[in-house]
Design brief:
The protein is an alpha/beta fold. Helix content is 35%, strand content 21%.
Length: 310
């Protein structure tokens, strides 16, 4: 969802607000939960794997603040975090890859997903092969006004556009930077590479894999904006009418997901699921009772990863 929608609910989000240790402040997640909370969210809690477990080693976090060297989105600045699983240096095989759009919300240690802890626990239990996770924030204009409208506009340009620009940004800018950071190349097999996001970040994840299935074979879309923002409502038809691509797709939405001027998120995600079914995709659609947030997706996150990377 575009930030303008959050603002209509009385929210004013700062997508670059982080603590000194590079982990996002949980204030924005708390504001979203408070403003958009619905009765259908009450029974969703972080999955058990999101809790710290005795004896499980934590992966190493690398913080890249103010990255402004993008060749695809010149004149932008953003924060990026790279997670390397414990023992990465001792692995013989190349690690898999998981990229998060709006990465700070998935990284938040007090949020509904707590992605790095889930990864620590699943990898330690042998339920997930070691992988590197890259948490990417939308860019803000270096030479533009430092206000919410500027952040909103640039996020929508990057995430909601149905062009190849964002996956080019990942391929040409982010992934080489992440490989250099962990000093290891990623497994080139797209079936070991996933891209994930919520709302506009969700359609962005699907769009990235749609354009470059050779780069990403796995998709996680939480409350994806397959609606009339920048043409996203056309995706169900495109899925039905285009030869099937080698993608595995996880979709999640809920009865109380957004329903605004740009469309109905519950209906749009049901349309996407129906299109994937029609076209013969390997997909899973979880339709719950929640709203436009990560609470349901967080409750399912460990199982989502196990299903996706199976």
């Amino acid at each position: 969802m575009d930030i303008e929608t959050y603002q209509r609910h009385g929210l004013h989000l700062n997508f670059n607000e982080v603590n000194p240790d590079g982990i996002v402040n949980n204030r924005a997640n708390a504001e979203i939960a408070k403003a958009l909370a619905v009765q259908g969210d009450a029974h969703y809690h972080p999955c058990p794997e999101a809790m710290k477990r005795e004896g499980v080693a934590e992966g190493q976090m690398h913080s890249i603040r103010g990255y402004d060297a993008s060749s695809v989105f010149p004149g932008t600045r953003r924060n990026i975090w790279v997670y390397a699983p414990a023992g990465l240096g001792q692995l013989e095989a190349s690690p898999g890859l998981l990229v998060f759009n709006d990465g700070a919300y998935y990284l938040d240690r007090n949020g509904p997903v707590r992605a790095t802890r889930v990864l620590d626990n699943l990898i330690a239990a042998g339920e997930l092969d070691p992988l590197v996770a890259v948490f990417v924030m939308p860019g803000t204009r270096v030479d533009g006004p430092a206000n919410e409208r500027a952040r909103r506009d640039n996020r929508s340009i990057e995430y909601d556009s149905l062009k190849e620009d964002y996956v080019r940004f990942l391929a040409e800018d982010v992934l080489p930077l992440a490989e250099e950071t962990v000093a290891r190349p990623f497994d080139p097999d797209p079936s070991r590479r996933a891209v994930c996001g919520i709302s506009s970040g969700g359609i962005c994840a699907f769009n990235a894999a749609w354009h470059r299935p050779d780069l990403f074979g796995l998709v996680i879309s939480h409350c994806g904006s397959f609606t009339a923002i920048r043409g996203g409502h056309n995706f169900p038809y495109l899925v039905r009418s285009t030869p099937r691509k080698p993608l595995r797709v996880f979709l999640q939405s809920g009865e109380n997901d957004a329903n605004i001027l740009f469309g109905s998120w519950p209906l749009a995600n049901q349309e996407m699921a129906a299109a994937l079914e029609f076209a013969g995709y390997d997909y899973r659609f979880e339709f719950g009772t929640g709203g436009h947030n990560l609470r349901h997706g967080g409750a399912l996150f460990a199982n989502t990863l196990k299903w996706l990377f199976r």
